[in-house]
């Protein structure tokens, strides 16, 4: 017993919190990268996550292509979709008010979700857990479904890899420098327009990858993205707009905070993230990891 | 005399609706150090930014090393071999000294190696893992120049490299520019500090109201002081 709560219930909700936190972290990471460089608030991020899950679902249903190839195929396709969107539309909006980018991606999300709702309705479609990851292990105090453990580990790997890419590589140094002063980086001879396109593609691909990981946990549904994206935006704001590390750490933290709230005061579990957001904005308007403007 | 390396004719430039340059003409020959002088706000920095392509609203002609720069997108200008050191230095806070140093892509052979750069700037070597903006103002200026030395550029555009720096650092930058000149680097310099500029410049262009009003070699500097004082208002 912990604070009068059975340890199984406590650990169970902690795990649910960690799983949700894994998705918050992966999605807010992509949002933070895109916002940092493009100054676009990507409202299509949830739709891109949903697209990743649907691609996994569709290539399994119609092509018999399973989970492991889908982990590669879906992010690549969603990333390519992002590249096309950036080239055709977003790149034309950089010189106008940032609100246009927000409105465009919001509209795009509605269109994508509308198309999938038309063909697949709003009820979820199940996606099987891959055979290698079925079952559970007994940890002594609880049973851990192997797939859920895998999601937490996979999301950690994705976040660490993304962080290393940004902090330790040449591409990352261009990305960081262009986030600070894109004109000067371009005047040094770096093809910044191409960098912006690739970055949006990378952000979209991350959302697509999160979607594939989510498919066996949640149902594959056209609305799965919009259900999540509002919380993810709160995570980005709490972490500090554009802060990569902030997005990752805050994502896991808030998932766990949500899970623990379910144990101690279930009625508040849906709003706890927003309460934390309000408190953080009052105390530190730039977010927990944000630099003060 | 051979073709100038940089030849600017009738350069006009605008910041939004504001017409900042009114037909600038200037030439810089290979290996020369040429200095733009003039009061604040007459268009010296704007001239450098327009040549570099950072100001897109521009007309006239800019020929560099046989290429017309007006037609090039911003990121292709540097690829022709021009390096730019902005007035505000442009050191990136989220990059280490090392990362700042290797950020500009190498555009041609003949640039310095990292070892050569560190032998010229031992301070930077000691602090290579610090964030770029933790350096002192003088060190940041050194870094801003140093990072353009490994790219193989034929020419540097330097905007007020001595601004706000202590005399001992200014002297150090003067020695550096003299060394670059010995190595054959072509430099277009904007400088308020006459004493500093007179020691390294071959020629001067005097600007007023967005255009060049006169130009002369360094040997005529003494005899031109009357005219200069009038235009500069010093």
TrEMBL record, chain A:
The source's domain of life comes to Bacteria
Decide whether keyword Transmembrane is in the record: yes
Under InterPro entries, the record lists:
ABC_transp_permease, BCAA_transport_permease
Tell me the compartments it is located in.
Cell membrane
Give the GO terms filed under biological process for this record.
amino acid transport
CDD domains per the UniProt record, alphabetical = TM_PBP1_LivH_like (cd06582)
Instruction: Name the Pfam families for this protein.
Output: BPD_transp_2
Question: What is one GO cellular-component annotation here?
Answer: plasma membrane
Entry annotated with the keyword Cell membrane: yes
Which UniProt keywords are present, listed alphabetically?
Answer: Amino-acid transport, Cell membrane, Membrane, Transmembrane, Transmembrane helix, Transport
In the bilayer, the protein is annotated as: Multi-pass membrane protein
Q: Which GO terms describe its molecular function?
A: transmembrane transporter activity
Q: Which residues cross the membrane?
A: 23-42, 49-66, 72-90, 99-120, 140-166, 187-216, 228-252, 264-283
Q: Which family does it belong to?
A: Belongs to the binding-protein-dependent transport system permease family. LivHM subfamily.
Q: Which PANTHER family match?
A: ABC TRANSPORTER ATP-BINDING PROTEIN, BRANCHED-CHAIN AMINO ACID TRANSPORT SYSTEM PERMEASE PROTEIN LIVH
What is the official name of this protein in its record?
A: Branched-chain amino acid ABC transporter permease
Q: Which organism is it from?
A: Mesorhizobium denitrificans
Automatic annotation (TrEMBL), chain B:
**Could you state one GO biological process linked to this protein?**
L-amino acid transport
Q: Which domain of life is it from?
A: Bacteria
Recorded hits in SUPFAM superfamilies, A to Z, give:
P-loop containing nucleoside triphosphate hydrolases
Key words, A-Z: Amino-acid transport, ATP-binding, Nucleotide-binding, Transport
Q: Does the keyword Transmembrane apply?
A: no
Q: Which InterPro entries match?
A: AAA+_ATPase, ABC_transporter-like_ATP-bd, ABC_transporter-like_CS, BCAA_Transport_ATP-bd_LivF, P-loop_NTPase
- Residues forming the ABC transporter domain are 6-234
Identify the stretch annotated as signal peptide in this record. Answer: none
Gene Ontology terms, MF aspect: ATP binding; ATP hydrolysis activity; branched-chain amino acid transmembrane transporter activity
The family this protein is said to belong to: Belongs to the ABC transporter superfamily.
> What protein am I looking at?
ABC transporter ATP-binding protein
Which species does this protein come from?
Mesorhizobium denitrificans
